[in-house]
Specification:
Strand content: 15-25%
Helix content: 25-40%
Largest sheet: 6 strands, antiparallel
Number of strands: 13
Strand order of the largest sheet: 1-5-2-3-4-6
Structural class: alpha+beta
């Protein structure tokens, strides 16, 4: 009894092994890494048999899901081909039925289906109710939900091909209210600027820090202030504060005590004031 182990590189490899099963009889065991899913195809000289550990699905549909996950995630299933092994269990299928699953043209298109998609048009009388519910609620559909409701990704592709549904890729940003979307975009732009300034935020802010130290010394001497907002703006219109014997810039978040604070201790002696424009 000959045993062959290895990995499948393409769907064509699987079809070749199925053809070999017809000549020799035996069992082909398939295992999909990371998903811990197994499918066995066996041939007893008369019928093919499919068995699987993918629960809640008929065997032929489980085989289709196994192949979809394989292609979608660019995995190489492990296989063991056992020539002449007797078939002990599984769903009997005709050769044509098995090849119809393996040669489904929609399998090569599963990567074209977005991970999350919105249904923009639907024939409510001819598609499953869960798709109608998502369309009605304007909720996106993800690939895992398709499996959860007993469908395959090729089923969705068939609905699209038949014109029963139309979809578009779901965009998280577009789902936000307009004002919130603007705020998130502005915040993202500030973060990019903050981390990509070629001189770095601290160096770019040096002149403003000198002004703030001047004012901090003035407020400390004239008013004896312990805490005072200073009339100086740093980069990106951030504020400076005199706190005890230190000048503090709280950074972009505007909160003192967080990790992006810039803190400068006021000098005790030997300080030369920096040139600064008078504040009006």
């Amino acid at each position: 009894m000959q045993r062959v182990k290895g990995r499948l590189n393409s769907l064509d490899d699987l079809i070749i092994f199925v053809d070999r099963l017809k000549d020799t009889g035996g069992r082909l065991e398939l295992y999909l890494p990371y998903f811990n899913e197994e499918v066995t195809i066996c041939y007893d000289g008369i019928n093919f048999y499919i068995s699987t550990n993918i629960s809640d699905f008929p065997e032929k549909k489980a085989l289709k899901i196994f192949i979809e996950k394989w292609l979608l995630n660019d995995l190489s299933p492990e296989f063991e081909f056992i020539e002449g092994e007797r078939c002990s269990s599984g769903l009997p299928v005709l050769e044509d039925e098995l090849l119809q699953v393996l040669k489904d043209p929609f399998l090569e298109m599963v990567k074209e289906l977005p991970p999350y998609f919105e249904i923009t048009k639907i024939d409510v009388k001819r598609v499953p109710s869960f798709l109608v519910a998502h369309w009605t609620a304007r909720r996106p559909v993800n690939r895992d939900e398709v499996y959860k409701y007993g469908l395959t990704l090729t089923d969705i592709l068939r609905y699209i091909e038949a014109g029963l549904i139309e979809i578009k890729q779901f965009n998280v940003m577009e789902s936000f209210p307009y004002k919130l979307r603007l705020f998130v975009q502005a915040l993202a732009l500030l973060v990019v600027i903050y981390f990509t300034l070629p001189l770095g935020y601290l160096k770019f802010n040096q002149f403003k820090i000198g002004q703030a130290v001047n004012w901090g010394l003035r407020e400390k001497i004239v008013k004896g202030s312990v805490r005072e907002k200073l009339p100086v703006k740093g980069c990106l219109r951030t504020d400076f504060y005199l706190i005890a014997d230190r000048v503090v810039n709280p950074g972009i978040d505007g909160t003192v005590g967080t990790g992006d604070d810039i803190t400068v201790k006021l000098p005790d002696k030997g300080y030369t004031p920096v040139f600064a424009l008078p504040v009006k």
